[in-house]
Design a protein that fits this description.
With 226 residues, the protein is mainly beta. The chain has helices at 44-56, 134-143, 159-164, and strands spanning 15-16, 60-72, 78-90, 94-101, 105-110, 114-119, 124-129, 169-178, 181-189, 194-200, 207-213, 222-225. Helices cover 13% and strands 40% of the residues.
Length: 226
């Protein structure tokens, strides 16, 4: 079977993180808790608030993610694909993102006035005028251009609200490790998808892993990034 013949039943979106992380829209987000730091046995909301505030306070950051994605074929078989994401953000208005691997090789560059998109595999290039800040640019990418760039929403100053949008239940699963790093493992339940986050414990509460399970789609495909 050829990957090009597959029918995608989900999009890795930001919601990111990117995720978005592919998060639901149209439902009022939960009000952020008051906690400024993690003490005792924190709730999932408190852990996510601390992690998103930590990122919000960084003037610039970069990361590399290994992405695993289930592709759903017409016969509802799940085929796993792998990609690598390279990501750089600088406030207030710089972003560079590249995803390359089994089925795509794409790059997006935002410079504060335009976003340029390059699809190396298919020889496609486009450029579009964009607002002058990351917040407004990423919002336009979602709402007007339907760009679902996986975990691209991380630089948004309202990333906590993006994560919590449409969540029915948020739980702390327990402590887990990503590599050798101890992390809080969290579960956010939505009607159409569940999202698990691994947030590093300690003084640097970084997002280390995310898994999205599209539970209403055939075969319950998953998208994950480490």
């Amino acid at each position: 079977m050829e990957v090009e013949k597959c029918q995608r039943t989900f999009t890795a979106g930001v919601g990111a993180l990117l995720v978005a992380f592919a998060l639901s829209f149209g439902v009022a987000a939960a009000a952020p808790p008051e906690a400024a730091k993690l003490v005792g046995e924190p709730t999932a909301e408190q852990i996510l608030l601390v992690a998103t505030n930590y990122l919000k306070n960084q003037q610039q950051f970069s990361f590399k993610a290994e992405i695993t994605e289930d592709v759903v074929f017409e016969d509802n078989q799940l085929i796993q694909t792998n990609h690598t994401m390279s990501y750089f953000a600088k406030r207030p208005n710089k972003l560079k993102l590249r995803v390359e691997g089994d089925v795509r090789d794409r790059e997006w560059v935002y410079d504060g006035s335009t976003i340029a998109a390059l699809d190396r595999r298919n020889g496609f290039y486009s450029q579009e005028s964009f607002p002058p800040t990351l917040d407004k640019a990423l919002l336009k990418a979602e709402n007007e251009l339907n760009l679902r760039l996986s975990i691209a929403g991380i630089p948004r100053t309202d990333f906590y609200s993006v994560i919590m949008n449409g969540v029915d239940k948020a739980s702390v699963v327990g402590m887990s490790k990503v590599g050798e790093l101890p992390c809080y493992q969290l579960l956010l339940e939505r009607e159409w998808a569940n999202v698990q986050f691994w947030v590093q414990a300690g003084e640097t509460p970084l997002f280390r892993k995310v898994v999205v399970t599209y539970k209403q789609d055939a075969g319950s495909p998953q998208w994950s990034a480490v």
